[in-house]
Design a protein that fits this description.
Protein name: Transcriptional regulator, LysR family
Largest sheet: 6 strands, mixed
Shape: rod-shaped
Helix content: 25-40%
Strand order of the largest sheet: 4-3-5-11-6-12
Order of helices and strands: HHHEEHEHEHEEEEHEHEEHE
GO molecular function: DNA binding; DNA-binding transcription factor activity
CATH architecture of the largest domain: 3-Layer(aba) Sandwich
Domain HTH lysR-type: 1-58
CATH superfamily of the largest domain: Periplasmic binding protein-like II
GO cellular component, one term: protein-DNA complex
Keywords: DNA-binding, Transcription, Transcription regulation
Length: 312
């Protein structure tokens, strides 16, 4: 039994005439008649009573009509779901993100994506870059948001946005009275920072920046969470060099100041590499990246230029 048999039968039941039904489904009358006969032979029951003037359904035919309509409606819904999935409009998306992105960009992206694609459920997982790469390889997340570089050669990535580093200072610090600093201004200051194993790329970039200014930061206290580090700053234990979006985390006793020639940290989306061009093979990921580009373009006061996919 095929869907075309059901469509032929429903057309015949509603038109009550072989000729009109055949025109409706775009087949010749003999083909429609053969289709109904084959359907009856397969079921082993008569579905229609044929007269010279009209077609009537048998009791079995009336009952079969109910099921045929339900089956065709379900088939149409299934086809629609497939088309919507191909456009990235339905399904489940699991997004990994590094700690801190919740303060910069991620909330706006997720909120806009959910509004645009209400048929997609979004699951957020806070993971380190290394954990995200492993989760992408294992199929545990659909897309990861992390800092460059993406080291895994089996992953592709797309630049999303860039943020400079800035200085977080205790509110009573002498440098807090200045509107802008240089990195050399922080030479000799005690620093609080992440352990290197947790964010090696970020750590090394800061160390190179400071070395270029002629000093090595004296890290007097380490912590793994941004709020903890900023609390240490507020307590006067040291200064910190966070990415700019962390300045959204307003904490009493902490002031933020821009630093001249600060390194710019690039945040990217990464996904498992497909066959061919470096574009996401999963339509949901593609839809998510499109929304991200639009949101971040507006946030930066322009379009999403410069957000074309780039292979890692």
């Amino acid at each position: 039994m095929e869907l075309r048999h059901l469509r032929h039968f429903v057309a015949l039941a509603e038109e009550e005439h072989f000729g009109r039904a055949a025109e409706r489904v775009f087949v010749v009358q003999q083909a429609l008649s053969n289709s109904i006969r084959n359907l009856e032979d397969e079921l082993g029951v008569a579905l229609v009573l044929r007269t010279t003037r009209r077609v009537q359904l048998t009791p079995a035919g009336r009952e079969f009509l109910i099921g045929a309509r339900e089956t065709l409606a379900l088939a149409d819904q299934t086809a629609l779901r497939a088309r919507r999935a191909a456009r990235g409009e339905v399904g489940h998306l699991t997004v990994g993100f590094v700690s801190g992105l919740a303060f910069g960009g991620l909330p706006e992206i997720v909120r806009t994506f959910r509004a645009a694609f209400p048929g997609v459920s979004v699951d957020l997982r806070e993971l380190t870059a290394q954990e995200q790469e492993a989760a992408l390889r294992g199929g545990l997340i659909s897309v990861g948001l992390m800092l460059l570089p993406v080291r895994d050669p089996t992953l592709d990535s797309q630049a999303l946005w860039r943020e400079p580093l800035l200085a977080a200072l205790p509110a009573g610090h002498a440098l807090a009275a200045r509107e802008r600093l240089t990195i050399a201004d922080l030479a000799g200051e005690p620093f609080v920072f992440f352990p290197r194993y947790l964010r090696a790329t970020y750590f090394d970039q800061v160390m190179r920046w400071c070395a270029g200014a002629g000093f090595t930061p004296q890290v007097v206290q380490e912590a793994i969470e941004i709020p903890t580090l900023l609390s240490l700053v507020a307590a006067g234990i040291g200064v910190f060099l966070p990415i700019e979006f962390f300045s959204r985390l307003s904490l009493p006793g902490v002031v933020y100041r821009p630093v001249e020639d600060a390194p710019v940290i690039e945040i990217v989306a990464a996904w498992p590499r497909g066959v061919g061009a470096a574009t996401p093979p999963d339509p949901l990921v593609g839809a998510f990246l499109k929304v991200a580009g639009e949101v971040l373009g507006e946030r930066r006061g322009g379009g999403a230029a410069g957000l074309d996919p780039q292979a890692t």
